[in-house]
């Protein structure tokens, strides 16, 4: 499919010709006006929209494929949105609402939240079009409150919250360090040490239960594993999350993270409530700042600790070796404030995302014993008895990779993703002016039958390529996003998940606990289990 940039270039070329007649000009002026007036609720930028280069295609393609305006786009009314979100707690069902709206309004639809207009794109090919047309520094939506907090404390933004030149500069540094599988393969041993502790922890926890097998609320366990694992890579240090006694500073961080997560709705309002209303409704902004204070404090502590170690080593005339943080501190491609902010944001981004995925993967394995057995056989056959997998083994374990992909297809931690368009676009036949907020509906595309046969079934083997020419669909399920602004921690997360799941499957048969019935997903910022998942971990016979 031709990309939008090709499309607009072609239009521009056509415009150089002399095909535009007067009559057409008037039709287009009218079209321009209606698009601009629809856009006026979005941003001032939208009103400058509909440049002449979008004019010619209307004539060229004829009435059948006329470019439509936002006004013509279907979507729920403001009132039904209010009822859905405020009355029926839609914030915890964003994934389900995506599916409902997709069914009712089609591949592309608009929703209004007060003055904010959001265009939802709920189709694999349209999502692909939007992402392929992105420029050099795509803009994420709704990060103003994050930026405001950072300005307030005199900190920098990190990758998640930065935009434009600032983002580009930091991204170009970090992408050299952790974006390729081989960049993170060097952390295999560090991650495996954390996996050792995870296995020990499973054994300790289950001995505390009468059946000697159950681990309650596995997400608690995986949260600690994910935090320990990502910190081992980012901070090059161990935090003690999987110990019986968790160090106070680590516990403080966990409290701050939980506050951020548990007060998600309140903190979301922190961004939505205008500044002048804060004295009247102070709680959302206060909680938002309190949790960020905790997260930044922890990051500064660990970065400063590593800096002091490096300085001491240099004073002693020793060679300094290390990983990501050491590289950043020595090479000085980023300021100290940028380093603090990026490590804070990366740790935040890397914990719940990874732990929810591990929880869902274990849950799915327990619910599908035959699939679990199939994966166990692959691991046993490939690695031999008792061998510990490293990153180099993962390409030889396609079902372990399929397990992670399939889990993220069924439970994409980020069920949707946001963008502010930086150019005028035509998507799905609609003119979308620059400055429009887009919601890319990854959850609903993951369940489209035309993308994935028997889409509700859990089938890790659907991701196995039959040969090198076989392409398994990618844009239908892109849990890490796509392109230049995609998840920078993808390889880190995959390494942590592949190594943990391989070892868990080698060691234990993971079974449903009678207390865990059908666990549904709910949206709470991220897509997470709506109820605790309790599972049994039964030793496999060696
Ligand atoms: C299962 C685990 C994870 C999932 C599903 C996930 C998913 C995502 C998604 C969907 C985005 C938005 C991409 C976009 O806007 O196109 C994102 C961004 C990001 N993620 Fe992850 N993530 C995971 C783990 C991690 C980890 C472990 C880290 C850190 C080591 C991390 C750091 C980030 C950062 C810094 C960004 C912002 C990137 C930018 O704007 O340049 N993520 N992630």
Automatic annotation (TrEMBL):
UniProt-listed InterPro entries = CYP11_CYP27_families, Cyt_P450, Cyt_P450_CS, Cyt_P450_E_grp-I, Cyt_P450_sf
Per the record, the GO terms for biological process are:
C21-steroid hormone biosynthetic process; cellular response to peptide hormone stimulus; cholesterol metabolic process; cortisol metabolic process; glucocorticoid biosynthetic process
User: What residues bind heme, as annotated?
Assistant: 487
Keywords from UniProt, A to Z, are: Heme, Iron, Membrane, Metal-binding, Monooxygenase, Oxidoreductase
Alphabetized PROSITE patterns for the sequence: CYTOCHROME_P450
Cellular component (GO) terms are: mitochondrial inner membrane
Cofactor(s) required for function per UniProt: heme
From the Swiss-Prot or TrEMBL record, what is one GO molecular function term? heme binding
Which Pfam families does this entry report, sorted A to Z?
A: p450 (PF00067)
Protein localization: Membrane
Transmembrane stretches, start-end: none
Main subcellular localisation: membrane
Q: Which domain of life is it from?
A: Eukaryota
What Gene3D superfamilies does the annotation carry? Answer: Cytochrome P450
Per the record, the similarity remark reads: Belongs to the cytochrome P450 family.
- This chain's protein is named Cytochrome P450
């Amino acid at each position: 499919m031709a990309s939008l940039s090709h499309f607009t270039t072609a239009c521009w070329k056509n415009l150089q010709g002399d095909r535009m007649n007067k009559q057409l000009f008037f039709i287009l002026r009218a079209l321009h006006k209606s698009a601009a007036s629809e856009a006026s609720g979005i941003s001032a930028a939208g009103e400058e929209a509909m440049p002449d280069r979008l004019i010619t295609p209307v004539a060229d393609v004829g009435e059948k494929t006329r470019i439509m305006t936002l006004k013509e786009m279907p979507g729920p009314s403001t009132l039904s949105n209010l009822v859905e979100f405020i009355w029926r707690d839609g914030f915890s069902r964003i994934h389900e609402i995506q599916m409902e709206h997709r069914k009712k309004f089609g591949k592309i639809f608009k929703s209004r939240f007060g003055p904010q207009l959001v265009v939802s794109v709920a189709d694999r090919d349209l999502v692909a079009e939007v992402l392929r047309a992105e420029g050099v520094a795509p803009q994420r939506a709704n990060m103003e409150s994050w930026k405001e907090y950072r300005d307030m404390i005199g900190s920098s933004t990190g990758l998640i919250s930065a935009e434009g030149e600032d983002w580009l500069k930091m991204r170009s540094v970090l992408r050299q360090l952790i974006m390729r599988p081989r960049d993170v393969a060097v952390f295999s041993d560090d991650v495996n040490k954390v996996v050792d502790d995870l296995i020990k922890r499973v054994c300790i926890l289950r001995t505390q239960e009468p059946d000697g097998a159950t681990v309650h609320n596995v997400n608690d366990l995986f949260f600690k594993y994910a935090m320990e694992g990502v910190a081992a890579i980012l901070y090059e240090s161990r935090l003690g999350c999987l110990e019986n006694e968790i160090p106070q500073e680590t516990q403080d961080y966990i409290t701050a993270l939980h506050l951020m997560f548990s007060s998600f709705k309140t903190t979301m309002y922190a961004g939505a409530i205008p500044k002048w209303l804060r004295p009247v409704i102070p709680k959302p902004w206060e909680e938002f700042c309190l949790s960020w204070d905790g997260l930044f404090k922890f990051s500064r502590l660990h970065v400063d600790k590593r800096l002091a170690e490096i300085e001491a080593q240099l004073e002693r005339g020793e060679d300094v070796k290390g990983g990501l943080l050491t590289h950043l501190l020595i090479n000085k491609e980023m300021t100290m404030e940028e380093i603090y902010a990026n490590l804070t944001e990366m740790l935040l981004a890397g914990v719940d995302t990874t732990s929810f995925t591990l929880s869902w993967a274990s849950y799915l394995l327990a619910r599908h014993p035959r699939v679990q057995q199939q994966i166990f056989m692959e691991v046993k056959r490939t690695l031999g008895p008792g061998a510990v997998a490293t990153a180099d083994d993962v390409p030889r374990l396609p079902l372990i990779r399929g397990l992670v992909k399939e889990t993220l297809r069924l439970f994409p931690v980020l069920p949707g993703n946001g963008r502010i368009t930086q150019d005028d676009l035509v998507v799905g036949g609609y003119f979308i002016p620059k400055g429009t907020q887009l919601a890319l509906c990854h959850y609903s595309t993951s369940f489209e039958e035309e993308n994935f046969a028997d889409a509700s079934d859990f089938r890790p083997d659907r991701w196995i390529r039959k040969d090198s020419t076989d392409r398994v669909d990618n844009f239908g399920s892109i849990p890490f996003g796509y392109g230049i602004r995609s998840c920078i921690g993808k390889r880190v997360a995959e390494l942590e998940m592949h190594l943990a799941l391989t070892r868990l499957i080698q060691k234990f048969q993971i079974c449903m606990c009678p207390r865990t019935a059908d666990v549904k997903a709910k949206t709470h910022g991220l897509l997470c289990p709506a109820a605790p998942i309790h599972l049994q971990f039964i030793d496999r016979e060696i």
